[in-house]
Specification:
This protein is an alpha/beta fold. It folds into three domains: about 100 residues; about 120 residues, no CATH class; about 160 residues, Rossmann fold. Helices cover about 25% and strands about 25% of the residues. A hairpin with a 5-residue loop joins strand 11 and strand 12.
Length: about 475
């Protein structure tokens, strides 16, 4: 189907009138006749012969066609061809390290899909193609932190536009389901591989306690869950990871005395007593008392801090501040970003949110952000749309406050290290498999290809111009 992308360009075809008017207004010069004597001739007079008759049809048609083609080019013609509705074969996605195990356990199903035209690809950043001989090789897992399955699916959805049907074979380790559930234009059949029942152990963290004892935290993870054990020693083990001997300073700012600061301080001290870490809590009532060495600053005021007051902070400092001023009464619960409610959590009041944040840490039962995280100039800023008071929520009477403060106060490197080796399975936490939403999948089965005709028309204009110049040249030579 022919389509003009810029139809207004056809108005240039009015220029065809110019060669027609030139050919019609053909003024011929008089001829000179040589005679022997002009004695008996009358007075000379200038006479011209005007003819409103077309005498050179081929040249007129060529010039008119040239102008018409140029106008057609300005209209940007394109040819659209509809592709037939065909059931396209898709991809089989599996991590290269699991391909050998998958081939042994699901060979019959994989054979039938390959016969139908499915290709096997590595479920990694580059989505490299795998062949059957790769089933004879044992591939090791990359030492780099693995991306979440959701991130890889988003990348595949944006890069591989023609692939729509996927068979996805993955394990169900909870650590690989990081982030929010994506919305994709992919028809995905997600299959979990059998769980690995082996338990993995590693040193999660080592630090020096208040009484100068070195404490080692060992993590043990399997598909059933993750638990930690500790051991103390009076001597430093050089074979372990770097021992944390730093003092952790936590400041709590409040303009007026309130219960909030007392609850937070009690939770921090409980964490300090339990871990025996070098943690110092300091109450302040003026922004001038903010220390550059503070690792965590609680800003317990409805009045937001000024940029000038925060300039003293280093990039390692985290800020926890109250957000929102308009109070709303609710009867809800506190949930994580995946919608799992915190144990025994109750929410009575919250503040109204005006703009949606980039990252949610907690949400309420309605899905509205309750605790968000923003990073500006390297400083992490947590915004809490509630308050640490018994008339707002019951966090002060549960272990919710301590559980929240733990990853903020303790070194993040230890938590990240543990997260990458976490062997907990998704089924152990949530019995639901991840869902993939399909948008306009059937509508995209019918596609069309657009091909521009400009290049062909330019060649035609060039050839016609050469032909027009050649005819004009021959005509002039004949006249001479």
């Amino acid at each position: 189907m022919l389509q003009l992308l810029y139809p207004l360009g056809l108005f240039a075809a009015i220029g065809v009138l110019m060669p027609i008017l030139i050919h019609l207004w053909n003024i011929k010069s008089g001829k000179t006749l040589k005679v022997g004597s002009i004695t008996f001739l009358g007075a000379a007079s200038n006479q011209r012969s005007t003819s409103f008759r077309i005498t050179d049809w081929p040249l007129l048609l060529l010039r008119s066609l040239l102008i018409g083609l140029i106008a057609f080019l300005l209209a940007e013609p394109a040819y659209h061809k509809k592709l037939a509705n065909q059931a396209q074969a898709g991809w089989i996605l599996v991590e290269k390290a699991n391909f050998k195990k998958l081939w042994r356990s699901n060979r019959k199903q994989l054979d039938s899909l390959i016969v139908k035209g499915y290709e096997v690809h590595d479920f990694d950043v580059n989505f490299a193609k795998l062949v059957l001989k790769d089933t004879m090789t044992t591939f090791s897992r990359s030492a780099n932190p693995a991306l979440s399955y959701y991130s890889l699916l988003k990348q595949l959805d944006s890069e591989q536009g023609q692939i729509r049907k996927l068979y996805l074979y993955t394990d169900n380790r909870l650590s690989r389901f990081d982030g929010q559930l994506p919305t994709l234009n992919l028809d995905v059949i997600w299959v979990f591989l059998p769980n690995d029942s082996t338990e993995t152990s590693w040193v999660s963290n080592t630090y020096q306690t208040n009484n100068q004892v070195f404490k080692k935290i060992v993590a043990h993870s399997s598909s059933a869950g993750t638990y930690f054990t500790s051991a103390e020693s009076k001597t430093k083990d050089t074979a372990l990871m770097q021992v944390d001997t730093a003092n952790i300073l936590i400041q709590i700012y409040q303009r007026n005395v309130s219960l909030d600061a007392g609850f937070i301080k009690a939770a921090v001290l409980a964490l300090r007593d339990y871990t025996n870490r070098k943690i110092q809590v300091q109450n302040i009532n003026s922004p001038k008392q903010i220390s550059k060495q503070a690792k965590l600053l609680f800003w317990l005021s409805d009045q937001q801090p000024l940029s000038s007051e925060m300039n003293v902070l280093s990039k390692e400092t985290m800020i926890f501040q109250y957000a929102g001023t308009k109070v709303q009464k609710v009867n809800s619960t506190i949930q994580d970003e995946l919608g799992t409610a915190l144990e025994n959590s109750e929410l009575y009041k919250r503040t109204e949110i005006t703009t949606l944040p980039d990252q949610n840490i907690w949400i309420d039962a309605a899905g509205m952000p309750l605790l968000s995280l923003e990073t500006n100039a390297g400083i992490k800023r947590y915004k809490f749309y509630s308050r640490f008071r018994p008339d707002w929520n019951n966090l002060a009477w549960t272990n919710g406050m301590v559980l929240f403060l733990t990853p903020l106060i303790l070194p993040p490197a230890a938590a990240d290290y543990a997260f990458q080796q976490d062997q907990r399975s998704l089924n152990a936490v949530n019995s639901l498999q991840p869902l993939v939403t399909k948008n306009n999948f059937k509508a995209e089965q019918t596609r069309s290809v657009q091909q521009s005709l400009s290049s062909w028309l330019w060649w035609l204009v060039f050839l016609l111009l050469i032909l027009e110049r050649w005819i004009s040249y021959r005509k002039n030579v004949q006249v001479i």
